[in-house]
Write a structure and sequence with these properties.
heterodimer; A: mainly beta; five-stranded mixed β-sheet; two-stranded antiparallel ribbon; 1 helix; 7 strands; 34% strand; globular; B: alpha/beta; five-stranded parallel β-sheet; 15 helices; 32% helix; disordered C terminus
């Protein structure tokens, strides 16, 4: 069965990812970094369930969204600060 | 269309789904809310490749198809007032009034600090499983799984089904404890069958007991793990390192409501009576929030809580089933107790608060977590101490402090929301 895909932008890059995956998975799939900590370390998801906040990104202009809690939507704009 | 709501169930995992179904079966109008985009909770989380187990799809269909139940997914409780909750979804904030409340807030993983644990590619064990099910790319990746408890096997199996090469499972508990646990599983035949299936599926994956990950190594992301076991120390190369030390109850909402808690090891669980009533009137709790008990326990407690919240009689057979399932939880705790040397892995330079980048050494001089928070900002970040506070409690730095609203970081607009008394109001509300 061929999976349908969704088109979105991650840090301005237009990418296609499988439908139904989380924004966190999409970021990992296209190889973009997630987040920088307050002292500048690279960070990426830890808990996968919306508790640790390591995956937070900007989605459609709204900051501080947990990427693991959101499913990709067509046309979504995702920005990370990694 | 729902005009008013008798019972709000918070959490759409096995306990919450059972509670919603039971309450609705008594003719009550129920709203079931969950912060995840889909119902199922963690144990029944939808897998993008493999869907959900049949038992989960049945439970979700029973609730979704029930005219008395409204499901609000992707919705988070951010604050409570007597008789109503302040909720937020991706678009808006809104209030929801309730007659009775069932807390089925589940569990999270106990994540303990060790050198390198902040490197990208280091996750929880359950964390890796959740990410895999969301579509996280694992094909061809070398994955090392460590920590404690049966969740390690489940995480390894999921990773393998997603194409990962699981290079090893490292259980901190000693061989004798694991064997005693396994030998006692005959008392719960479903658990025994599940364990046997997982072992078969993972037959080619090395499983080591008495083995701990002491450090993660790598430049920009994890490239290997330092492992200490009975054969001494070694470095194992990996692309992902998943370490989890079991589960702990999520009690923040119960705490905010003023429900009495009781100790669960170094952590807390919601205290409930025989019919899942908390110390607060009209507030019930079920499942992992009342102590880690597993799937069967959550389902039967959810059913009891749903009936009790609806004011319906609770059949004694349900209470017996609950007590039997709770005995499994006791066995888990007994055999997978975290070893002292695991608590000593983090050194003074190891980050303890990942939100504010506070090293453990900065926290140690302080008498309790509150004082440490005021002096170092430890626990003041976005996760609100869910990770570092629980880790510090396990490390012996005293219990996590109290919970204050908002329960999660909230958009400013949400705090200014008007009072809405029904779900139909919220649906019509756009701004």
């Amino acid at each position: 069965m061929k999976m349908s895909t969704v088109r979105l932008t991650v840090n301005g890059r237009r990418v296609h990812v499988p439908a139904g995956i989380s924004v966190a998975a999409a970021i990992a799939l296209v190889g973009e970094p997630f987040r920088r900590s307050v002292t500048g370390e690279s960070r990426a998801p830890l808990c996968g369930m919306g508790v640790c906040f390591e995956c937070r990104v900007r989605i459609d202009g709204v900051a501080q969204q947990r990427a693991c809690q959101r499913v990709v939507n067509p046309g979504m704009r995702v920005e990370t600060d990694g | 269309m729902v005009d008013a709501c008798d019972i709000v169930v918070v959490g759409a995992g096995p306990a919450g789904l059972a509670a919603a179904e039971a309450a609705a079966s008594q003719g009550k109008r129920v709203v079931l809310i969950d912060s995840q985009p889909r119902a199922g909770g963690q144990v029944w989380r939808h897998d993008v490749l493999h869907g959900q187990p049949r038992v989960a799809t049945d439970a979700i269909r029973d609730v979704a198809g029930n005219a008395n139940v409204t499901c609000l997914e992707g919705t988070q409780v951010v604050a409570v007032e007597p008789g109503r909750l302040l909720l937020q979804d991706a678009q808006r904030g809104f209030h929801l009034a309730y007659g009775a409340l069932v807390l089925a807030t589940g569990a999270r993983e106990l994540l303990l600090p060790f050198p390198g644990w902040t490197l990208p590619g280091v996750t929880g064990a359950g964390g890796l499983q959740a990410l895999a099910k969301q579509g996280w790319p694992l094909r061809g990746k070398r994955v090392l799984i460590a920590g404690s408890g049966p969740l390690l096997l489940a995480a390894a199996a999921t990773a393998q089904r997603h194409g990962a090469h699981v290079v090893g499972i490292h259980e901190q508990a000693g061989a004798s404890a694991v064997h005693r646990f396994a030998a006692g599983l005959w008392r719960w035949p479903a658990k025994l069958a599940q364990a046997a299936r997982l072992r078969l599926e993972l037959a080619r994956v090395p499983y080591r007991t008495g083995s701990i990950v002491t450090a993660a190594e790598g430049e920009h992301g994890v490239s290997g793990a330092r492992v200490r076991g009975r054969q001494g120390d070694e470095r194992i190369a990996c692309d992902l390192l998943a370490v989890g030390y079991g589960l702990l109850p999520q009690v923040e909402l119960a705490q905010l409501l003023g429900c009495a808690l009781e100790p669960e090891g170094a952590h807390a669980r919601v205290q409930v009576g025989p019919w899942q009533a908390t110390s607060q009137p009209r507030v019930f709790a079920a499942g992992e929030a009342c102590g880690i008990g597993g799937l069967d326990c959550a389902r039967v407690e959810g059913r009891i809580a749903g009936l009790a919240a609806a004011g319906a009689p609770v059949p004694p057979t349900l209470v017996q089933r609950r007590d039997r399932a709770r005995a499994f939880a006791a066995s888990l705790r007994e055999h997978f107790t975290v070893r002292d040397d695991v608590r000593g892995l983090a050194n003074g330079d190891t980050t303890i608060c990942r939100c504010e980048d506070v090293p453990l050494g900065a926290v140690r001089p302080h008498a309790d977590t509150r004082e440490a928070k005021l002096a170092t900002r430890c626990g003041m970040g976005a996760c609100q101490g869910r990770i570092c506070g629980s880790a510090l409690a396990e490390l012996g730095h005293g219990p996590r402090g109290g919970t204050r609203p908002p329960l999660f970081p909230v958009r400013l607009a949400t705090l200014g929301e008007p009072v809405l008394s029904s779900v139909s109001d919220t649906r019509g509300y756009t701004s």
